[in-house]
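Pasting two entries for a bug report.
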Amino acid sequence: MSIQLYKIDESQGTYFWDLEGHWAYDSVINGAKKGFIKGYPDATFKPNNSITRAEFTKALVEALGLPVIYGEKSNLVGEGKWYTPYYYSAEKKGLIQPFDYDRKSYNPDKSITRAEMARMIARAFPNETPKGATDLTDIENLPNDLKDAVLLAYEKGIIKGYPDHTFRPDGKSTRAEAVVMIVRLLEKKAQ
């Protein structure tokens, strides 16, 4: 399923009527102007809706300026689907690995969790490892690869926890959270 896009008119400024006063407003506008995230035809962004694995992968690939790979085949992703070239771009860059999804299916329409998103973001820093210190109280029981990804992204300031010092790794990520994390990633990569 492809998202219908809302064309941004640079001369009029970027505006999504449902973002007024939203905590992620600046990041969403930044992401929309950079072109890696889009709104809907009705001029909404729907910041509190969940984002799928496929949508996040596409946004991350576009934000990082990775070449889009066409013509690959795999059991994990459907051939000829809108998200397939973005999956392969992310896989080639090492942002996704086949064993990330139980060797069964990428499940592109499944909402991406906060931990899955952190893993993809952390892999944009392939030669870095976390120091290991955090005040997040709910990541200790995560598999090591996910815990290390959350720690690295947290240490870099790309992800933040909630006021109660939780990260909620199994929580579904919202469109707003995804864009904020990608914008922070781009800022860190630019340093």
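Entry 2 (this is the one that rendered wrong in the viewer):
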Amino acid sequence: MDLDLGTIIVGIICTAICVIPFMLMGKGKKKKEQQKLLSLTNIANKHDGHITHHEFCGNFGIAIDKEKGFVFFNKDVNGEITEGFVDLNLIQECKVINTSVSVTKNKETYKMIERLDLFFKSDNHTSKDIKWEFFSRENNLQLYGEFQASERWSKLINEQIKMKVY
């Protein structure tokens, strides 16, 4: 079975046309994550902290400084950037607030998540409670791991609050 040079060239071009878009998308995603990490690092630097663990999900990034007990947050919704900082020394607990609505379709009722927030309950009356939006149906049509991320970070933060060794 002989392949002529023209068939080989066409095969290489077709393969390149199929592969290059995926390579470019991966490169763009990596660049966005680097920008988000830089933004989180800038927030940490403002509060004399450093990031020991971080995660990006959807349009937000969250990070923690386990040594000092700080949590950092940033979110980009249509170019509007929200930044947040929490000192866990002033927090009693952290929990996920899941706001959902019931939707009836074909005589069956389903719960649909409207909003997910990470809520920080202050341990005294001098500092305010803090709420960070992880997901809002107003801005996103579908969940892309925000539910799991909010549960994971609530658990991590509550473990950190219990330790209070910073």
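Dev reply: Rendering is fixed now. As a check, the viewer should reflect this: The radius of gyration is 22 Å.
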